[in-house]
């Protein structure tokens, strides 16, 4: 069962390990990122940052879709992490179970604008956000679980 899909360009870090994972009761973190799946150094650093209470899987987007679609994953409490809006959309389009996406942190890049204190999006991201909203997927911003929910649609 997918507990949460979170967009955070840092992927696994303190907030994920110390607040989100226990709050969700997650026993499996899945980093869905093509680059990280191929980079042994990044995989090692993610493993160092993960909480001791959860298994960490680092997979490409395609392999993540296969994993989340497999019946054997249904008994796990899965916290999925991606680092971009387009990657979140790929998963949401492929996995009907995903009804909500948490925006945790997206640093500014050229052509992006801040829509909250920790979320910067560009025009391409906004186009994908609008497609997700049109499909009825809730898009919410919270850095940590105790933050008040901000809806992305009110900020773009």
UniProtKB/TrEMBL annotation:
UniProt-listed GO biological process terms: phosphoenolpyruvate-dependent sugar phosphotransferase system
MF terms in GO: kinase activity; protein-N(PI)-phosphohistidine-sugar phosphotransferase activity
PROSITE patterns hit by this protein: PTS_EIIB_TYPE_4
PTS EIIB type-4 domain location: 1-156
Keyword terms of this UniProt record: Cytoplasm, Kinase, Phosphotransferase system, Sugar transport, Transferase, Transport
Gene Ontology annotations for the cellular component aspect, listed alphabetically: cytoplasm
Cellular location(s): Cytoplasm
Chief subcellular location: cytoplasm
Protein name: PTS sugar transporter subunit IIB
């Amino acid at each position: 069962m997918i507990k949460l899909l979170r967009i955070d360009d840092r992927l696994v870090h303190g907030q994920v390990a110390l607040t989100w994972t226990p709050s969700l009761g997650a026993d499996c973190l899945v980093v869905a990122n093509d680059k990280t799946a191929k980079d042994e150094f990044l995989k090692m650093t993610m493993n160092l940052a993960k909480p001791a209470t959860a298994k960490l899987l680092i997979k490409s987007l395609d392999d993540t879709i296969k994993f989340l679609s497999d019946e054997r994953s249904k008994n796990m409490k899965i916290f999925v992490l991606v680092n971009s809006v387009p990657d979140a959309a790929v998963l949401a389009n492929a996995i009907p179970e995903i009804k909500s996406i948490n925006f945790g942190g997206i640093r500014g890049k050229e052509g992006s604008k801040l829509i909250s204190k920790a979320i910067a999006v560009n025009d391409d991201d906004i186009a994908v956000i609008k497609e997700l909203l049109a499909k009825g997927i809730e898009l919410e911003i919270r850095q940590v679980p105790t933050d008040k929910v901000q809806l992305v649609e009110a900020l773009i």
